Amino acid sequence: MRLIDRILPHGTNYDFIRHRLIAFGITAILIVGSLTAIAVKGFNFGIDFAGGILIEAQSTTGPADLHTMRQALGNLGLGEVSLQEFGTSGRDVMIRVQRQDGDEKLQMAALGKVKATLGEGFTYRRVEIVGPKVGGELVRDGVLAVLLSLLAIALYVWFRFEWQFGVGALISTFHDVITTFGLFAITGMEFNLTTVAAVLTIAGYSVNDTVVEYDRVRENLRKYKTMSLYDLLNLSINETLARTILTVSTVFVTVLALLFFGGEVLHGFSVAMLWGLIIGTYSSVYVAMPMLVYFNLRTGKDRALDEEAAEPAP
């Protein structure tokens, strides 16, 4: 017997649509909470967007002494300087220095002060300097990329199915994207270009899951012409449930590996992906599918009656 058959017996007929009002309430709370957190708290923009200096340093003499490093770098007069240890050796340190007022020469001068203060006991694996103009352009381009991806997804689903499916997929994907933004606003995790990549990946994953379920709905509309829309949606979800569980489980294990072994650079991406897997699966079942109930989607019986009415009288 396959593992999936043990977890999910054949012929499962759970009534998902019955809980649609509770799910809509949860969805409303998540969206409102996320928008409120974004408006009130905002994002902890990384160097990519805020500008400044990012340094990945590795101690060559043993574990790094963060306390001593903070005191030394804090006395340089460079503004906010944050240090964060990453990796398992205790020798790797991520150093962030706020953007200096002035041109690129002043940024390079600040970088030189940091290196001189740390001395010869460190090697530098990565150094990034981002100016305010570049950071502003990246913010604009990131927002534009997310908006265009949502629009393209809605147009694709609308073209492939019907307008009800397109609107449902758009609302579901918008829900996933906004709640992911809210997660970063609430937790204060660094928001950078890697996070934008994660958001776009989440949008693609979510719409893929939604399209699979919508495709089964379309098949069942032709197959079960007398079945009510309520029962047909439940049937479609249950028929695709095994595929959903297998897909989510496989990707979840992969992303967990990234989270634990991918290092500090991929931490935000991994957290966003884990959240996206959970919220994307939830929205496909409890947002995208129940929406069809309220969009007056015609059943197979309705379509047959329309075809009979369109036929010329003998």
From TrEMBL:
Question: How does this protein sit in the membrane?
Answer: Multi-pass membrane protein
User: Protein export membrane protein SecD/SecF C-terminal domain location, by residue?
Assistant: 117-296
Primary subcellular site in the record, as a coarse category: membrane
Tell me where on the tree of life, at the top rank, the source sits: Bacteria
Q: What InterPro entries does its record include?
A: SecD/SecF_arch_bac, SecD/SecF_bac, SecD/SecF_CS, SecD_SecF_C, SecD_SecF_C_bact, SecF_bac
Keywords assigned: Cell membrane, Membrane, Protein transport, Translocation, Transmembrane, Transmembrane helix, Transport
Transmembrane ranges, per UniProt, are 21-40, 142-159, 166-187, 193-212, 241-261, 273-295
Q: Which family does it belong to?
A: Belongs to the SecD/SecF family. SecF subfamily. In the C-terminal section; belongs to the SecD/SecF family. SecF subfamily.
Record text on subunit structure and interactions: Forms a complex with SecD. Part of the essential Sec protein translocation apparatus which comprises SecA, SecYEG and auxiliary proteins SecDF-YajC and YidC.
Q: Kindly provide the name given to this protein in its UniProt entry.
A: Protein-export membrane protein SecF
Q: Which organism is it from?
A: Paramagnetospirillum kuznetsovii
